[in-house]
Amino acid sequence: MDRKKLLTVLVLLGALGLSACLPYHLKTPGKESPITVLGELSGQSVEEIVEAEIIISRGKHSYTKVVPVFNNEFEASLEIPVGEWDLSVFLVDAGGKVQYQSKTKTLHAKGGQPEILEIILRPAASSVHVNIELADYLFAEQVMRARIHFDGDIYEITRENSDEPMAAEIEVAPGSYEFKIELYTESFRIGDRLGPDSWQVIQVLPREDLNINWTPPKEELSVVGRVELLLAAPANLNADPSELGVHLSWDPVLEEGVEGYLIFVQTDAFERFQILTPTPIQDTSFLCTWEEGETPANPIYTVAAVSKSGLVGYYAPPLEIGP
Predict the structure, then answer these.
(1) Does pTM surpass 0.70?
(2) How far apart are CA 127 and CA 211, in angstroms?
């Protein structure tokens, strides 16, 4: 059977005040409306359909009319009370299993001339068994909730403790679906979500019992570490003011892994040091210049070595330059 096949059923409903869409004869308008359901099946393997169930319902009240299917056609006539009713159609095979079903349509029965209502029957829902495998998941004990996405429909799973399985049985119509699963901890708030999942396309065939064993996406991580000590502070920091600026010099730090040096200045005792060389310099001297009129009164300078991994070492003892 072609799983994408749709069947169309025409429902002829006598309705007072509605314009006639098909020729129809009413004997006596009254408190009940005649309704005729006509169906024609086409496609592969439709000979397995043996009867049609037409269900009229409203709230907790319902009525079912069962009619046989001959030569891939069926017809059912009944009178329903005036009012608003829901109509559903199911096509059943010889084993009593629903093969096609319609979405619920609402009828407004007022008594009178007929109205045509088109009902689309799709292959009956298939069972999808979703099992979430958490055995090798890092946060397996924290997972208490899951959301299963089939296109825009969301199905939620909850459990009381980590010993309970995370599984669900879902009835969906055959077709192609965009599918993903999201795991949560204490609630379904975004802050309790354990990372996103990527969308996948799955195929659900007619009358299929589909089993999906899903494991959370993960990536193998290798961590390699080494111990790195802070570099020693540069010794013998000197400052030599001149008309060109302040010439700073210091002794080199004779340790492995020195990338360069950073120069810092503090122009206000109530503010932090500012870095003068965002990129480490290789030399052990630096000329600090200021724009005319911006020379601070009593700047304080210091210098620190930087490792190849970017770790800043100890500061040299700060050196204040007087007026």
Answers:
(1) no
(2) 9
